[in-house]
Amino acid sequence: MRKLIAVLWAALAVSFAGGAFAQDTAAPLVEAATEAVSAVVATAEAVAEAVTEAEPTLDSGDTAWMLTSTMLVILMTIPGLALFYGGLARSKNMLSVLMQVFVIFSTITVLWAIYGFSLTFGGEGTFYGSFDYVFLKGITPDTLSAALPTIPEFVFVAFQSTFAAITCALIVGAFAERVKFSAVLLFAVLWFTFSYIPMAHMVWGGGLLAEDGALDFAGGTVVHINAGIAGLVGAYLVGKRIGYGREALTPHSLTLTMVGASLLWVGWFGFNAGSAGAADGIAGLAFINTILATGTATVAWIVGEALFKGKPSMLGAASGAVGGLVAVTPAAGFIGPMGSIVLGLIAGFACLWGVSGLKRLLGADDAFDVFGVHGVGGIVGAILTGVFAAPWLGGTGADDFSIAAQVWVQVKSVIVTIVWCGVVSLIAYKIVDVLIGLRVSEEEEREGLDITSHGETAYHH
């Protein structure tokens, strides 16, 4: 710009000077001025184009992928999680488990729209957002997401609602077969409000852990550790099932459990690859990592089972797959494919120990191993994300990435999640116990919750 001004002043001076010298000199100066003006105009056009590109613009491909991902997460909850848990229950409690998952999903998605989304993504607080979007106020079909500017806000709201719903539903596996249905629902509402929302805001809404630099691509802390700790606390407070440790409380249908696990795996592509927020290369990376970590964890689990128990089992394969899915969740978009294989290998053995050796040490009747799989797998995945995100290990971290520094950040995020969720869960269970009681009577438990809580049976002989 300074050059342009200088040339223009020179041209004017020459034009006023007159004479042959002026005529001979004016032409090249005017030509230089013209070139300078053209350069400035081109620069201005480039800046204007860049500004236009930076403005939020709806992308139909991204929107289609996020709508698909939302449906996939619904699939992994109902029917996926419901059938996975239902098959693990005894036949007399099959419907009670299905009912708990189904109704929790329904309830939480409504609460998410009323106040959950606003408190999670509506502000910049340390632990909570704001009430700016309560009742989805101010959001229209034309509103683009502040977090994902190429998709409608309504799509982002719907996608995140499925995460909140499945996290609350995961917990029921820990105290299945002996808890009151009304207690499950009241606990889910309290826990969603005081544990899930603040954890999601701290990690994804710009709160405490986000400011600290914690990496959690799709919910290692927010979903799995959070739910795993809530399940473990619940297993302690609700108490052990009648006959636990003395009778064989075996799953009634491993066929349904396998179907449920398969639907979980399919749905998890929406969970992990959808968390990229766009139909792009990171979604592809998360997609292949979800295949590789899960497959490796499945093989690792059954190998460990064969070595220590003599035979690989279908239940072990299904559990190993879920363990791999859990572990890769926080890492999916941050690590490379080979890193996901190593992560799956570690997670398979770790989760096998979580449901066997660790479970015996803890002494809790975690009926469907919510903590052993989701808690342990989530902790392993969250911490190792700080290792395999390193660019020299195939991750997407910056060139100056420090494994030691990031692992410490990841460890702090795990500790915060365990403490926050543990305290909130303890208080929420106590409130529910005082108000309506947590556990059904001994007679109702022996007869089965399908009949005593819902007046129906899953099977007629």
TrEMBL record:
Localization, UniProt: Cell membrane
Family (UniProt): Belongs to the ammonia transporter channel (TC 1.A.11.2) family.
Residue spans crossing the bilayer: 64-85, 97-117, 154-176, 183-205, 217-239, 251-270, 282-303, 315-335, 341-358, 370-393, 413-432
Residue span(s) of domain Ammonium transporter AmtB-like: 64-459
Domain of life: Bacteria
Protein name according to UniProt: Ammonium transporter
GO MF term (any one): ammonium channel activity
Annotated InterPro entries: Ammonium/urea_transptr, Ammonium_transpt, Ammonium_transpt_CS, NH4_transpt_AmtB-like_dom, RhesusRHD
Main location: membrane
Organism of this sequence: Pseudothauera nasutitermitis
Gene Ontology, cellular component aspect: plasma membrane
Keywords: Ammonia transport, Cell membrane, Membrane, Signal, Transmembrane, Transmembrane helix, Transport
